[in-house]
Amino acid sequence: MGTPELISPRSARVAAARRLARRNFRGKERRFIAEGPQAVREAVEHRSGGERTLVELFATPEAAERHAQIVDAVRAAGVPVHLAADTTIADLSQTVTPQGLVGVCRFLDSPFEEILAAGPKLVAVLANVRDPGNAGTVLRCADAAGADAVVLTDASVDLYNPKSVRASVGSLFHLPVAVGVPVEQVVGGLRGAGVRILAADGAGADDLDAELDAGSMSGPTAWVFGNEAWGLPEETRALADAVVRVPIHGKAESLNLATAAAVCLYASARAQRTSGGCRSASRD
């Protein structure tokens, strides 16, 4: 049957995918780039609003052969697969070491109201988080800790920034994420749904260990995380039920955002799964 022809780097499909590197074009088309086998594997299984999230796949011939199982699953789902030269894939992926697979996906964020209606017990809220790598890594931490949702406020980075998507390592496709919600609306909505609001801040008056010892973290909880450089502004801290610091037992000056988020989310997850917690065996 011969070797399949490579798609031209000047084709309309490649040009449209390339433009997704720009936020305004992503917003207009409501599509984004997911790069690498893990992201593509997750995307082909994901649906949003009744539609398959993965729209099309670009792959180098070598990557298509190496990841044949993923490419076969994409084709079986009726999603177009375009073979492309290494240079074309490198241009689309915008990474130093492209992995040979680049998927174009539909936006998949959820309305904040749907997250509230689901009765969340553990939520990560990103307020003023501007670094896309941090945003994606916190999303990954939230997924690993079993959180029910992640919310990015209107002052935070674009969820679909390629760096955010890569840093989530597929977790973007695992749990509901709401975007562009004012922090006051986030806090008000969650509190109205019976969720306790904890702001994570290195200068917090309350200690995470003390909160755990007091047994006050077993109920539904939302953690609010701020900008790594300057933390949470006073007006945001004032919205919380408590401002909690992760104790530093050694000589480290502080923890980075993703590490602090992992510690806080796992502390809540453990507290919620102990006897009597909101995720105890009788209620899961």
- Structural class designation: alpha/beta
Can you write the helix and strand succession as a string? Answer: HHEHEEEHHEHEHEHEHEHEEHEHEH
Q: Count the DSSP helices.
A: 13
Q: How helix-rich are the residues, as a percent range? A: 25-40%
Categorize the overall geometry.
Answer: elongated
Percent of residues in beta strands? 15-25%
Mean pLDDT: 93
What's the multimeric state? Answer: single chain
Radius of gyration: 21 Å
Number of strands: 13
| Straight-line N-to-C gap | 53 Å
Order of the strands making up the biggest sheet: 9-8-7-12-10-13-11
Poorly predicted runs: none
Biggest sheet details: 7 strands, parallel
Plain-language structure description:
With 284 residues, this protein is α/β, with parallel strands linked by helices. The protein has helices at 12-19, 23-29, 37-45, 61-66, 68-76, 86-93, 112-117, 132-144, 162-168, 183-192, 208-213, 234-237, 257-273; strands at 31-35, 47-48, 51-52, 54-59, 81-83, 101-106, 122-126, 149-153, 177-181, 196-200, 206-207, 221-225, 242-245. The strands form 3 sheets. The chain has a 7-stranded parallel β-sheet with strand order 9-8-7-12-10-13-11, sandwiched between helices. Helix 8 (132-144) runs parallel beside helix 9 and helix 8 packs parallel to helix 13. The longest helix is centred in the last third of the chain and has 17 residues, at 257-273. The radius of gyration is 21 Å and the shape is elongated.
